[in-house]
Amino acid sequence: MASCKNGGLFKKKPEKSDVTGWNYNDKNQGGYQVSKEKEQRTGPGLVFVQGGTFTMGASEEDVMGDWNNPPRRVTVNSFYIDKSEVANVHYREYLYWINNVFDGDEHQAIRNAALPDTLVWRSELAYNEPLVEYYFRHPSYNYYPVVGVTWKQANDFCLWRTDRVNELELIKRGFINEKSLKNISGIAEENFNTKSYLAGEFQATPGKAARSKKNTLKNPNGTPRTNVTFEDGILLPGYRLPTEAEWEYAALGYVNQNPQPSKKEGKRGEELIANKQVYSWSNNVNGMRDTRRGSWQGTFLANFKRGSGDNMGVAGGLNDRAVYTAPVTSFYPNGFGIYNMSGNVNEWTADVYRPLSLTDVDDVAPYRGNRYETVYKDSATGAIERDSLGRIKNRFVTDEESKNRRNYQKGNVINYLDGDSLLQGVNYGYGLTTLISDKSRVIKGGSWNDRAYWLSPGTRRFMEEDVASSTVGFRCAMDRVGSPEGNGRKTGINYKPRRQNSRKR
């Protein structure tokens, strides 16, 4: 019931700062705007992966003798990852947008740079020309994984996807005019870019909701605010390639093997970890998975090469029903609901490849490949600039800027603790002195043309970031902000506050 006082309704008390006592969202007390605490929504195509600790590394005999992934205990933060590999139809959507937005002759190089290399299907001793001609374009292959994409192209796809998802969300909420989607042809660098928008370098035409009095976003003076900030909780973090640790953790899907915590606060799961799981679909060390009646026993649970000359079995009894790749949602998903983490195509990860030791990565969120960047600003004016794609220009952080820091002393730390400091005159001359370089990126998961050994999440290989293959595709990931247990869960362990005793003197 509403009560009246002095002829008006009681107003809800504004939220106050715990440190100053000033009101939030109050134009009479400075107008500092604070959005209500909200959980991160799940972006299109993604599934939530609750983080935790696991034993990263090889889980069976090192057949190849590489010993490049020794087992070690690490922790992975919660994150999101695509439930399936990026398919041909998705990448063609990307090319369609590129061709529309950058349609002038002056942008031919941009359009060409995004094209996958369909010639990866060619082989000196095989008739693969039909795949060269049809695999990427024919609708029969719409939902087959895109291949022939370099690491750089996969990374650019993630950046593009971020902008399209965030742009559509702003249009749906009325902060950008909905007609802007119909007028993308030829706009080139004036296209919507999330970071450019947040930096104020891209000015979008406001939609109806932005100018409405019902708009919950306010300026300090209480008027509706037309531009959205990241603090409003509307825009999603960027899509990106998963780190190797994230990819391996997601592939193992251990969540189904741990006792599930009760919804009642105070009862939680035990730390039970199946360290020796071999494949992503496994529920036991033998790799078997079946129903109570055993209906899955003996069927193929991934797309791979069974043996020399056997890529799909015999006529009338095909085993994996795929001579090359299979649709991205084929076979049974793992514990997190993710498809084809073993087999179909190898997948790019974010990491630079090095043969690993037990001490060359952090035990929380391990990753190799950091080369720190900062926003490029004009030396004369200090203004932020955009590049030919409409993205904020960045530059690499210099060693001079980093030398006095405690957490890192160099801007380029790709080679940090990789053992090269012990060698004299080491030189990463690809193909001359070594096959490994700073452009070598980790690929994981095995493919349609690999034996079962490579399907284990603990195995790893590498390929140069500007090279493509008919056996390598990718999927995207996204950071998780807020509670690591997922939406609707609490962060930390909360106890009832105890009343303090005060004694009178």
Automatic annotation (TrEMBL):
Q: Give the taxonomic lineage as stored in the record.
A: Bacteria, Pseudomonadati, Bacteroidota, Chitinophagia, Chitinophagales
Q: Which top-rank group of organisms is this from?
A: Bacteria
Q: Where is the composition biased (Polar residues)?
A: 20-32
Q: SUPFAM superfamilies, alphabetically?
A: C-type lectin-like (SSF56436)
Q: Could you tell me one molecular function GO term of this UniProt entry?
A: formylglycine-generating oxidase activity
Q: Name one Pfam family in it.
A: FGE-sulfatase
Amino acid composition bias (Basic residues), ranges on this chain:
496-505
Origin species, per record, is: Flavihumibacter solisilvae
> Region (Disordered) spans which residues?
1-41, 480-505
Tell me the PANTHER family matching this sequence. Answer: FORMYLGLYCINE-GENERATING ENZYME (PTHR23150:SF19), SULFATASE MODIFYING FACTOR 1, 2 (PTHR23150)
Q: What is this protein called?
A: Gliding motility protein
Annotated Sulfatase-modifying factor enzyme-like domain ranges read 43-368
